[in-house]
Amino acid sequence: MINLALHDEIALSVVLHSVQPEDQWLWVRGEGMRDGIRWLVDLEHWMSSVVFARGISAQELAVRMGGDRDGATEPITDAEAWDLGQWYRPSEDGDGVVRVGEHEGWSFALEYGDSTGGDRLAEISREGVEAVHYVPMQEHPPATVFYARDGVDLCGFGLGEEVWRWGREPDLLLPELVSGYVLQPDGKTLIAPEGEHYTDTYRRTLGVIEQRFDLSLSPAYLKEARLPAYAVRGTPDMHI
User: Fold this and answer.
1) Are 71 and 221 in contact (CB under 8 A)?
2) pTM of this prediction?
3) How far is the C-alpha of 13 from the C-alpha of 26, rounded, in Å?
4) How many CB atoms lie within 10 A of CB 79?
5) What pairs with residue 188 in β-bridges?
6) Contact assessment for residue 181 and residue 159, using Cβ atoms and an 8 Å cutoff
7) Would you call 10 exposed, middle or buried from its count of C-beta atoms within 10 A (0-12, 13-18, 19+)?
8) Distance between CA 157 and CA 179 in Å, rounded?
9) What's the Rg (C-alpha) of the chain?
10) Which residue from 12, 15, 211, 239 has the least number of CB within 10 angstroms?
11) CA of 119: how far to CAs of 143, 167, 217, 237, in Å?
12) What is the pLDDT of residue 237?
């Protein structure tokens, strides 16, 4: 028997109906499953955003974010990416770099510096492409998730603040947020228990996004993996 000290047993059963019994508690906590994306919550010192795109290659994703198609570096690590460029300049745009790759049916771009994912999500999603942008932040302001498809910014919200949604179809993911035990069916009431740590709240919502879009990202990409990098804004020094 799973005891989450939360109310509404019916809602919980909806969340768990597709999960094997032995995995149910681990699913709620975001543990014991494939890479997924819930683990991003625990990266306290990683402040890069990530753009996922389904329907285009990693190279095309970099190009739609502002990169030169032939401008990739040799594959580099996360630590080497942080050594590129002069990221920020007062009162003007800074430099932006992405490292790109492909994983589990999605292309992805890890963003560094003054990158362009938030400005270009609709452009990234043109011609039938799906795009998801995750911006990791601490509790205030919250991390955010945005979703675009076929050239349109469809919906977005802050994690832990899902009662305020925006985009052309702000309620697009409401059924999943309800069945994922984030919101009450009215869409205006959070279910998170009082006093829950924000990382647990974030993990629950990222679980909804992970399940809805079948998203996964290996932690290796932010550790030892080497990926090609592209300049997408400004004039970063791309020499390794």
Assistant:
1) no
2) 0.84
3) 15
4) 10
5) none
6) no
7) exposed
8) 17
9) 18
10) 239
11) 16, 14, 22, 22
12) 86
